[in-house]
């Protein structure tokens, strides 16, 4: 069974940092295009960042988080991470990890441009609250 489990969310003050983790099981995460999404209260699900599969390490970011968030992958741990710095109240949301088996000669960005429809494997999310 393919499964994604997010962790690392919590309460953080504005300007602070958090690192989210997404542990994969049932498949090798380096073969999948992997992404982070978030859904703020009362708002739509939004794509944030992705990392290439097929053992690649290319990444892509939305303009909202570029320069503040960093996606990475630990192949030995079969885990994806999202390092979030300079957090703002607007970053308060439930954060989701998502994946899709990656075809040849493509990038994760090709999946991320389709939004949530570009991914067919999802975790249950981890909440992040940025507040003083």
Description:
This protein has one helix and eleven strands; from the N terminus they run βββββββββαββ. With 132 residues, the chain is mainly beta. Strands 2, 4, 5, 6, 9, 10 and 11 form a seven-stranded mixed beta sheet that branches. The protein has a four-stranded antiparallel beta sheet with strand order 1-3-8-7, with no helix packed on it. The longest helix is centred in the last third of the chain and has 5 residues, at 108-112. It is globular.
- What is the CA-CA span between the terminal residues? 40 Å
Shape: globular
Overall residue-averaged pLDDT value: 96
SSE order in H/E notation?
A: EEEEEEEEEHEE
Strand content: over 45%
In brief, what are we looking at here?
With 132 residues, the chain is mostly beta strands. The chain is 4% helix and 47% strand.
Could you name the key traits of this structure?
single chain, mainly beta, 4-stranded antiparallel sheet, 47% strand, 132 residues, 7-stranded mixed sheet, globular
Strand and helix layout:
Layout: E1 3-7, E2 10-12, E3 18-25, E4 32-39, E5 45-51, E6 59-61, E7 69-74, E8 79-84, E9 93-101, H1 108-112, E10 121-122, E11 126-130
Parallel strand pairs: 2-11
Antiparallel strand pairs: 1-3, 3-8, 4-5, 4-9, 5-6, 7-8, 9-10, 9-11
